[in-house]
Design brief:
Helix content is 42%, strand content 5%. It is mainly alpha-helical. The protein has a two-stranded antiparallel ribbon with strand order 1-2.
């Protein structure tokens, strides 16, 4: 599945219904953010035992809300299939680097123009992340990843 942009995006405004829903949800935002950070810390702690995985790096003095918890991993497509077969959610949100999107074809920037962006697009995999996630669920994800790399 290739996710490509063929036209430029646009900026749109909330309608009244969306704004009303958001107004209610905003009071929960700080709690959701705390929960996501705690889940990310648990993932990072547990994934450190698997040396083939690169976890998110948050520089000292900076914060992250972890809308997604995205790792970099060799054999990403194989791991993605392995997790999916075990009914473990995962996603590749940005499989095609920006310079290879059809919308930018006129720039004539082919594969190899930005090798680090291309490598990242080939290696990134987002793991389940939501405020209500349980430690047991995180452990199940990590156990499956560990099983994948030990086989």
């Amino acid at each position: 599945m290739s996710q490509s942009s063929v036209e430029p995006g646009w900026n749109s405004r909330l309608d009244e219904i969306q704004a009303a829903i958001l107004r209610v949800k905003l009071r929960y935002l700080k709690g959701w953010e705390r929960a996501r950070r705690a889940h990310a810390a648990e993932y990072t702690k547990l994934l450190q035992r698997i040396n083939r995985i690169t976890t998110p790096d948050i520089p000292e003095g900076y914060g992250h809300v972890f809308h997604q918890y995205t790792i970099r991993v060799p054999r990403r497509n194989e791991l993605q299939k392995f997790l999916s077969e075990r009914k473990i959610g995962n996603a590749v949100y940005y499989p095609v680097p920006l310079h290879l999107q059809p919308i930018y074809a006129s720039l004539r920037l082919g594969r190899g123009s930005f090798p680090e962006a291309e490598r990242a697009a080939d290696e990134v995999l987002s793991l389940p992340m939501f405020p209500e996630l349980k430690v047991e669920q995180i452990q199940r994800v990590v156990d499956a990843i560990s099983e994948f790399f030990s086989s």
